[in-house]
Amino acid sequence: MKPKGITPAPQDAAARKAVTPVICYPVESLPRPDLAAYRAVRDDLELVDRVMVPARDAACWPVPAGHFCRILCSEGSQVGDLNLFNAHDFNERLYTGKTRALNGTHVGLGDQLFSNMPYLRPIATITHDTLDWYGFDEFGGSVHDVIGTRCDPYTHNLLSNGGQYHYCCHSNLTRAFAKHTGKALAEASVHIHDVLNVFMCTGFTRDSGQYFMKASPVRPGDYLEFFAEIDLLGCMSACPGGDCSSEHSSDTAACYPLEVEVYKPVRQPRAWTSPALNGYDGTHGL
Ligand SMILES: [Zn+2]
After folding, report:
1. Which residues is 93 bridged to in the sheet?
2. pLDDT at position 83, please?
3. 178: which residues sit within 8 A by CB, 6+ positions away?
4. What is the number of structural domains in the chain?
5. Ligand 1 centroid vs 78 CA: distance in angstroms?
6. Ligand 1: centre distance to CA 212 (Å)
7. Ligand 1 centre distance from Cα of residue 237 (Å)
8. Ligand 1 centre and the CA of 16: distance in Å?
9. 158-163 long-range contacts, CB within 8 A, separation 24+
10. Does a structural domain hold residue 66?
């Protein structure tokens, strides 16, 4: 249990708490994707790759710039932990922190996924989400979060008094990335980063602010689709938590594979060009 506060509230506590919040990053000045232009080319797509991500395991696959990638729930309610890399430079990768700061805690239709500094640019744009009807539920939960980090054996070790579990998303991603790139496990593991939790339903409890999960509303046939803004390497784990209705980091949950499809559009979106690297000059005031 977290300790309760011990400092008496000041007399103007209510007034201080009543201050209206302001958005940290007003995004009016952010160049927004032309969603209509992306969606206009979705009717004429050629399937070029299909990858199965086994339950309690992970897989890697390339998505060339200008292609669409769909993550599909094919057999049963299942959460996927997604990493995205620049296919030519693994140092550039999905940055969930800034993606969250700019879009919110959960991502969906029209949101851009950003890479880390100093590259910081949109690397993918979400172009379809069959769960976009969900919005936020009465608990403050929503789907596709960029707040969870990924289940990992180190946290499990701390929380379970020394437990050893080898099929957390972090380990699954590490094995798959190592196999795909030929890197040793130890080197591969440091490339694994905080994930987009595809299909996972999460939020923060209103009273204690704790990260919660609940059974994913995803059903077979649902999918999340994104457009690759640069050449990407995707890597995704089918979480050992299954639909994340009870627990992860164990073999007790019902788990299912996930499917990935990569599509090449016959035409490119109108006026689309792959985003350049971030324009900050990197001199940091010197
Ligand atoms: Zn997981």
Report:
1. 85
2. 98
3. 184, 185, 187, 188, 189
4. 1
5. 10
6. 13
7. 7
8. 39
9. 160/249, 163/249
10. yes
CA of residue 248 to ligand 1 center, whole Å: 6
pLDDT tens track for 65-83: 999 999 999 999 999 999 9
Ligand 1 mean position, distance from CA 128 (Å): 23
Task: Please tell me whether the peptide bond between 217 and the residue prior to it is cis, using omega within 30 degrees of 0.
Answer: no
Please provide residue 159's backbone torsions phi and psi, each rounded to the nearest 5 degrees: -80, -15
Cα 279-122-231 angle, rounded to 5 deg: 105
In a domain, 20, yes or no: no
pLDDT for 199: 98
Here the tokens at position 268 are 């490119």
> How many other C-beta atoms can be found within 10 angstroms of the C-beta atom of residue 161?
6
Q: Give the distance (Å) from ligand 1 centre to CA of residue 20.
A: 36
Distance 152 CA to ligand 1 centre (A): 7
Between the CA of 24 and the centroid of ligand 1 the distance, in Å, is 29
- CA–centroid distance, 200 to ligand 1, in Å, is 10
Asked if the structure places residue 6 within a domain, the reply is no
Question: What is the residue range of 123's domain?
Answer: 46-265
**Mean pLDDT of the 10-28 span:** 91
Which residues does 126 contact at the CB level (< 8 Å), separation at least 6?
107, 108, 109, 110, 111, 112, 113, 224, 225, 226, 227
Summarised one tens digit per residue, pLDDT across range 193-246 is: 999 999 999 999 998 899 999 999 999 999 999 999 999 999 999 999 999 998
Check whether 250 has a pLDDT greater than 80: no
Is 125 inside a domain boundary? yes
User: How far is ligand 1, taken at its centre, from the CA of residue 190, in Å?
Assistant: 17
